[in-house]
Design goal:
Elements (H helix, E strand, L loop, with lengths): L20 H5 L5 E4 L1 H4 L4 H9 L6 E5 L2 H6 L6 H11 L6 E7 L9 H10 L6 E4 L3 H5 L7 E3 L5 E3 L17
Parallel strand pairs: 1-2, 2-3, 3-4
Antiparallel strand pairs: 5-6
């Protein structure tokens, strides 16, 4: 969010270089979603820069790379996951949770792959799962989809109302 173009000059000083924007953002927000990590794992130097621009109590919620979640669909992803988590290490406890955004084609029929993936995750981190397949929301059983993992955690798709994004919602005061 600290690189979100409409915020430059509005919520963040417009004259800041990209490498200074996170520090400014962190003066008025104490957490951020890291969407850029979905498109490519950042370099270790980039993550060190993020840590250096934020206080120890700042929190990141970072998406796992699409290579893991969308392209490999959570299978044969141990090495890319290890590399990603190693790159995130400079954040320490600032890495509040890792967000597993599933592909819109990942349906309840694929929950076995998700359960297996969750069982292999390192236990020292927190994870959250975003389901996007319409069946999770349209199927009357969707509130009961649940996976018990060997870590004692679970996932649930509860009843929600899907609201399509509105371009105008980004422009509200």
């Amino acid at each position: 969010m600290w690189t979100y173009a409409p915020w430059q000059g509005r919520y963040l000083p417009g004259s800041l270089s990209p490498r200074e924007r996170l520090r400014a953002y962190a003066t008025w927000c104490n957490a951020v979603e890291g969407n850029t990590t979905f498109y490519a794992a950042p370099t270790l130097d980039t993550v060190k820069s993020w840590a250096g621009q934020t206080t120890p109590d700042f929190r990141f919620i970072l998406k796992l790379p699409k290579l893991i979640t969308h392209e490999r669909r959570l299978t044969d992803a141990d090495e890319p996951l290890r590399a990603f988590l190693a790159a995130m290490e400079p954040l320490g406890p600032r890495a509040h949770a890792f967000w597993i955004q599933l592909s819109p084609s990942f349906s309840p029929a694929d929950l076995g792959a998700l359960a297996g993936f969750l069982r292999r995750l390192p236990r020292e981190y927190r994870y959250c799962v975003e389901v996007r397949h319409r069946e999770f929301f349209d199927d009357p059983r969707s509130g009961r989809y649940y996976i018990e993992t060997n870590t004692g955690t679970g996932i649930c798709a509860s009843k929600v109302r899907v609201v399509p994004p509105s371009k105008s919602s980004h422009n509200r005061e």
